[in-house]
Write a structure and sequence with these properties.
Elements lengths: L17 H9 L8 H9 L4 E4 L8 H9 L3 E5 L3 H13 L4 E4 L5 H12 L5 E4 L1 H4 L13 E6 L4 H4 L14 H4 L5 E5 L4 H10 L6 E4 L7 E7 L3 H9 L6 E5 L3 H13 L4 E4 L5 H13 L4 E4 L12 E6 L6 H8 L9 E7 L1 H12 L5 H19 L4 H8 L12 H4 L4 E3 L1 H13 L6 H8 L5 H5 L16 H13 L3 E4 L5 E4 L3 H5 L6 E3 L25 H21 L3 H4 L2 H10 L4 H5 L6 H18 L2
Parallel strand pairs: 1-6, 1-7, 2-4, 2-5, 3-4, 5-6, 8-13, 9-11, 9-12, 10-11, 12-13
Antiparallel strand pairs: 14-17, 15-16
């Protein structure tokens, strides 16, 4: 078997034919969707705004022009982890790319600056803070800047307001690099965010490319919280041996959940913003390099992932918006193979998120927008219809029919006419003076005598005990859905008291019917028609194909460790599946498979052909 440890790539002349570069380096026979149109726009010197979902090849839209154009492309990226991951991917393909960040070791930073000034790099990745520094451009020396890319550009809107002020300065890139084409890309942008991107980045003249935001390979499941850990464990049992992410809201919960998973036989590591830089890098590298690892994280890990074979994403807490949910679940299945998104939520999640908005430092207008985005996410959680249709509707896209690949499609939700229950609940809010939280209101409705109900005289109210025929757990669901329907709101300045909204009057007057969904407290999905990973994290392959796939996967892991690169940088799962099912016997046959370019064929082809030809299958 040939040795790979000494294999190195030198900077090369890539030519100017995008299709030739696509096949030679990435091994793809043709462009998908609007990729070629985006590339041609940039090569013609025009600006572009690209709104493609994860997995549709956004990166190629700036990487290929960077190779075609003379000079070095600047790529502005929000997270160091994401930059490092993408640079390692570029290097594995033989592309001269580097990154610069504030905590970079000095000897490494000096070498990058030397190579940059010498014109040796095709792409330089930088954080927003570094990109707008007055002295940054001086590092290029006489090297020409070929293009400017702003990746994850939705952060201009979602982070620029109250988190990363440097995002608001990225519009200056047009002045700093006049005449240089700019491309801004994101997988997450509702209509409001799109307007923000155009305004803040001065992209009024940019050509906009929008693809469908549908991720058909991801199945969605959202359940009402009962015992979150038990529900999570039940979900994770479907993914033994697969890589995935579990998101939690707080650092403390991340660490506790990680420890609990390890205690229950699930190999897990944790990641959050307060970890020291080296530990963050070690954790990021472990997730990239290892198979079957569960990463428990806060949203600090959200965009720092370039791993294509993440098979699941689970949320133990409600994200802040539909955009956040879509972005985080989008880390799953970037390779297009079947993957799952799972979430547990409850009333307390909604209250906590609203409190975070109300107590934030944003302007009243920004808070209004954040509340609307949160309400949209709660609407997805509470829908009795197809979740995919509601998600895509939020992004301005109409889905023609039920998807058949979410929990509400595969196991339809029962509904009930809750108009009378809604009236009782709203009346309890009114009769108690709009001064109490949900727990106390449920005690009043169910006729529970407590120190509090007696002390405030609520046992004498006409609403006391009027709802005792309804279980307290159902009342929790009722109030959660009343909140989702914008019939009530939470007063965080008054210890979480429930307030009536103007819209409640239509319910009181019976001008509005209220339909509630029945809660399903445990994960209980019926099998859908879509292909799903089988037990043990395996893909649904036949016996002989699975046997060969496992051998190829073992070969890939060996090469990965030998070279110190992530397994997917050798070949992704999709290519291994094609090897296992099509069984190419020659180099020429292997080149016909997507993901096998001339560069990777020269480096790895012989080793994989040896395994395939040894099988005799």
């Amino acid at each position: 078997m040939q040795s790979h440890a000494e294999a190195k790539f030198e900077p090369q002349a890539y030519g100017t034919d995008p299709t030739r570069i696509l096949k030679q380096i990435w091994g793809y026979p043709s462009f998908r969707g609007q990729q070629q149109a985006v590339i041609e726009t940039v090569l013609a010197g025009r600006d572009a705004l690209v709104l493609f979902p994860t997995g549709k090849g956004k990166s190629l839209c700036f990487q290929i022009p960077a190779l075609c154009l003379e000079g070095t492309a600047i790529v502005v990226s929000p997270l160091v982890a994401l930059m490092r991951d993408q640079v390692e991917d570029m290097k594995a393909l033989g592309i001269a790319a580097e990154c610069i960040w504030s905590e970079q070791p000095e000897d490494e930073a000096m070498d990058v600056r030397r190579r940059l000034a010498a014109g040796e790099l095709k792409l330089i990745y930088v954080t927003p803070e570094r990109a707008v520094l007055p002295g940054f451009a001086r590092m290029f020396g006489r090297t020409r800047i070929s293009m400017v890319c702003i990746d994850e550009c939705h952060c201009v809107s979602t982070w620029g307001n109250n988190f990363r002020k440097d995002y608001l300065s990225l519009g200056r890139l047009k002045e700093l690099y006049p005449g240089v084409p700019r491309i801004a890309l994101t997988a997450t942008a509702d209509p409001h965010t799109r307007l923000d991107i155009v305004r803040l980045l001065d992209l009024d003249d940019a050509e906009t490319f929008v693809d469908s935001f549908d991720r058909p390979n991801i199945s969605y499941e959202i359940v009402e919280r009962n015992n979150a850990r038990s529900q999570l464990l039940q979900f994770l049992k479907r993914h033994s041996g697969s890589s995935g992410i579990v998101y939690c809201l707080s650092r403390k919960k991340v660490e506790e959940t990680c420890g609990w998973l390890n205690d229950n036989g699930i190999r897990a590591k944790y990641y959050h913003a307060r970890m020291d830089p080296q530990t963050k890098r070690d954790t990021q590298d472990a997730f990239r390099m290892e198979e079957g690892l569960c990463l428990v994280a806060t949203v600090a890990f959200g965009m720092g992932i370039n791993k294509p074979n993440v098979r699941y994403v689970a949320h133990l807490d409600l994200p802040s918006s539909v955009e956040g949910y879509y972005q985080e679940t989008g880390r799953a299945g970037r390779d297009g193979l079947p993957s799952e998104a799972f979430m547990t939520y409850g009333m307390q999640d909604i209250v906590q998120r609203q409190r975070m908005i109300d107590q934030g430092e944003a302007t009243d207008e920004v808070k209004r927008i954040e509340r609307a985005k949160l309400n949209a996410l709660v609407g997805i959680c509470e829908t009795a219809g197809c979740r995919r249709r509601v998600i895509l509707s939020h992004f301005g896209e109409t889905y023609p029919a039920d998807c058949g690949n979410c929990d509400t499609c595969t196991n339809p939700v029962e509904q009930w006419d809750g108009t009378e229950a809604a009236i009782m609940g709203l009346a309890a809010v009114y009769r108690t003076g709009q001064r109490f939280g949900v727990g106390h209101l449920i005690d009043v409705l169910t006729g529970k005598v407590t120190d509090k109900t007696e002390r405030f005289g609520h046992t004498e109210l006409p609403v006391f005990g009027v709802g005792k025929a309804i279980a307290p757990s159902v009342w929790q669901s009722v109030f959660r859905q009343l909140l989702a329907f914008s019939l009530i709101e939470v007063d965080h300045d008054n210890f979480g008291a429930i307030l009536l909204r103007d819209e409640a009057s239509d319910v009181f007057k019976k001008r509005r019917t209220v339909m509630f969904r029945k809660d399903r407290l445990v994960s209980g999905r019926k099998a859908s028609g879509a292909a799903r990973p089988a037990a043990g994290g395996r893909l649904a392959l036949s016996g002989e194909d699975q046997e060969l796939f496992d051998r190829l996967r073992a070969m890939r892991m060996g090469l990965s460790r030998e070279l110190g690169v992530a397994p997917y940088m050798v070949f992704p799962d999709t290519t291994l599946v094609a090897f296992a099912t099509r069984r190419p016997r020659t180099a020429e046959a292997m080149l016909s498979i997507s993901g096998v370019g001339e560069t990777k064929l020269a480096r790895f082809g012989a080793s994989f052909l040896e395994v395939i030809n040894e099988t005799g299958l």
